[in-house]
Amino acid sequence: MKKYSVINTPVHNIDGIAKITGRAEYTFDVKLPRMLYGKILRSPYPHAKILHIDTSKAENLSGVKAVVTGKDTLGIKQGIWRRFKELCDEEILARSRVRYIGEPVAAVAAIDEDTAEEALDLIEVEYEPLPGVFEPLEAIKEEAPQLHEHAERNINVTRHIEWGDVDEAFQEADHIREDWFRCSSQHHVCMETHNAVASFTPDRKLTVWTSTQSHYYIKVLLSWVLGLRENDVRVISRYTGGGFGSKFELDSAQFCSSLLSMKLFRPVKITLTREEEFMATKRRTPMFYYLRTGVKKDGSFVAKEARVFTEGGAYTAMGATALYLTGFFQAFPYVWPNYRYDGYRVYTNTAPTSAMRGFGAPQATFCAETQIDLIAKDLGIDPIDIRRRNVMYPGYEVPGQATIQSCGLRDCLDKIEKWIKSRGKLPPNRGIGLAAYGFMSGGIFNWFDTPYAFSSSIVQVNIDGKVDLFVGSQDMGQGSNTTMAMICAEELGVCVEDIRIHMGDTDKCPVDLGAWGSRETLMQGNAVKMAAAEAKRQIVEFAAAKLSPNIVYDIDIKDGWIHLIARPERGLSFYDVVKEAIRGKDGQPIIGRGHYTPHRKGMISPAYSFGVQAVEAEVDTETGKITLKNCVTAHDCGQVINPLGVKGQLEGAMAMAAGYGFTEDLPMDEGKILNPNLVDYKVLRATEMPESKVIEVETYEPEGPFGAKEAGEGLTNPTAGALGNAVFHAAGVSIQTLPITPEKVLEALRKKESEKNRKGGKKS
């Protein structure tokens, strides 16, 4: 018999038919009786005092039902960091000061969107503009305008990581290289913009339908800022049209629709426009990166020092976590005997920066992998050989930070090397760059410090053999529901078609902290496996009395057949046994419960995925234009659950990460985003995508369900670095600022030619 019946077989998303037929209900589709429509007035200034707000004209407009401002709130400064009050620094409706263009100052509810939009123009806000500061290296100067009283020199948060003796190790290095990098911002560009429908009833119960990555977090945050009991708030998120890190913090649509509904006792719907999405929601964190690296002549890594200044924007959001993680992943996926990192998150008068897929790791990987290729060239070492000499391995402990239990990096390098050799001699101006990476498989951050398990699940087996699976996780398009159904089906020994999944409702589903940090497969998957195992135990106990009443045999369930392991031909139908067992319990269904909280094996995650990506690119040296030709990724995600899911995640991650590498940017003029639309903001189109291939490198992760690890965010980390290295090998120039545009390539080529001519002149 094969090892698994369901695991590692290609399964199409179980909600795919609902989506392609239009039956899947997103928050966009929610319509309630007597529902009103809301709009939000936003600041036109990057920094200003609010002197006075006059809403009388808007309130008198026919069709307007309510207007709210900061004075209608409890004045609570909120943030995801509830455990650390000094990091809760944002009033979603500003009361006395605005700190970025697009910050909400008032909200309107009306009979339709047009009326609500008209009412916004009638609200009169008197501002006193204040000096602004927009770059972190300017904001930390003593004479710079200060955004928050508690943050001297606008330094929001600092982070420090260190082990070994870095200064002494540099003395022993044969070669030291120093480089500065700048990593740009990026927008999530979710297909579904931020939106919410809130309904507050006279019994003081609030129900919010919303597009979110964590309905539990939104429930708790809303109850906190609105002064409600936690379980008087219900959050529903049936389907989510993309998140990528942008949708697990409380947003203006959720808060303002709730506030308006509490005032009116009528449902209120707010949907952000695409322009609002760009200018007033959170984005990837721009970073200024300094790296100093010491190595031996043979390429052995000796020491690394990293310093980072990040553009935090106006409020903390998840930026404090990104600041730590970029320093953590700067040391990945290699063995560094000596390492020191200092990070500084700086307040600026720009839209807040926060979590985005990879969460600080794409920036770290771009800088580190770019510098490694430069060092390899300095020393005359092959880029694969220098990486192979230094990669992490199973059992390695990152001092004070992490324990690596499973790691297939060497196999990944071997497979990528084999693919590169298969390409043979490349045409002129074409190069292959590579980047290695590692990423968390289940972030264990708990910003709330709740008493709940990190992930919980309930399995209910019904009299007809169908299984109801209740999970707290959120599928936002990544295929989490399918993965959970497959894990449940494998453990119970039934078909995926027998599993009916219930998710996205805080009143009906157990607690899970949400879809972030690549946590669902490992954390929710473990909870599902445990719940299914408990239900299976009850079924097997009943079957044992029928199959072997007098002799002890091990019994298993596979493909709907309950059988003796030693004699698999002797067994009973799963469905018949379940029916008889439930009848014997007077109709009570068979229920199993599972919850998973990892035993700490480091500060951020119980397990880590690894991989190596190679990108082949062509550079037109006359124009600087870059054309992607191929992308191959060897990825160690432990035991593969769904090969189709891994491939889909790879292709999506590669498109997002390649966009970050060379087309996407958010240029600003004194805090104003200049391209807040999908015409001027250049995401990669399907026709611009190269051929993408995934090579599965299977390991076994002891902490994961069936040995599985993540295959989501980690795939976003290497592409910008691999692309930059491909340009380096194709054209001989290294671009150390993102995105890698044709203009930057052309400028670097001209500078290189000028330097060559200058040196040639000196020799003559």
Task: Explain what this protein looks like in three dimensions.
This protein folds into 3 domains: 16-23 and 454-596, Aldehyde oxidase/xanthine dehydrogenase, molybdopterin binding domain (Aldehyde Oxidoreductase, domain 4, 2-Layer Sandwich); 31-130 and 191-242 and 247-280, Aldehyde Oxidoreductase, domain 3; 283-444 and 602-753, Aldehyde Oxidoreductase, domain 4 (2-Layer Sandwich). 29% of the residues lie in helices and 25% in strands. It contains 18 helices and 32 strands. Strand 28 and strand 29 form a beta hairpin. Helix 10 (361-379) packs parallel to helix 17 (719-731) and helix 16 (643-662) crosses helix 17. It is globular, with a radius of gyration of 27 Å.
CATH-defined fold name of the largest domain: Aldehyde Oxidoreductase, domain 4
The CATH architecture of the largest domain can be named as: 2-Layer Sandwich
Mean model confidence by pLDDT? 95
What is the overall number of helices?
A: 18
What's the topology here?
Elements: H1 16-20, E1 36-42, E2 48-54, H2 56-59, E3 64-69, E4 97-98, E5 104-110, H3 113-122, E6 124-129, H4 136-139, E7 155-163, H5 166-172, E8 175-183, E9 195-201, E10 205-210, H6 215-226, E11 233-236, H7 252-264, E12 268-271, H8 274-280, E13 283-284, E14 287-295, E15 301-313, H9 319-330, E16 339-347, E17 353-354, H10 361-379, H11 383-390, E18 397-398, E19 402-403, H12 409-422, E20 430-440, E21 455-461, E22 467-471, H13 480-492, E23 499-502, H14 520-547, E24 555-558, E25 561-564, E26 571-573, H15 574-584, E27 590-596, E28 608-619, E29 626-636, H16 643-662, E30 668-669, E31 672-673, E32 691-696, H17 719-731, H18 742-763
Parallel strand pairs: 1-12, 10-11, 13-17, 15-16, 22-23, 29-32
Antiparallel strand pairs: 1-5, 2-4, 2-6, 3-5, 7-16, 8-14, 9-10, 9-12, 14-15, 18-19, 20-28, 21-22, 21-27, 24-25, 25-26, 28-29, 30-31
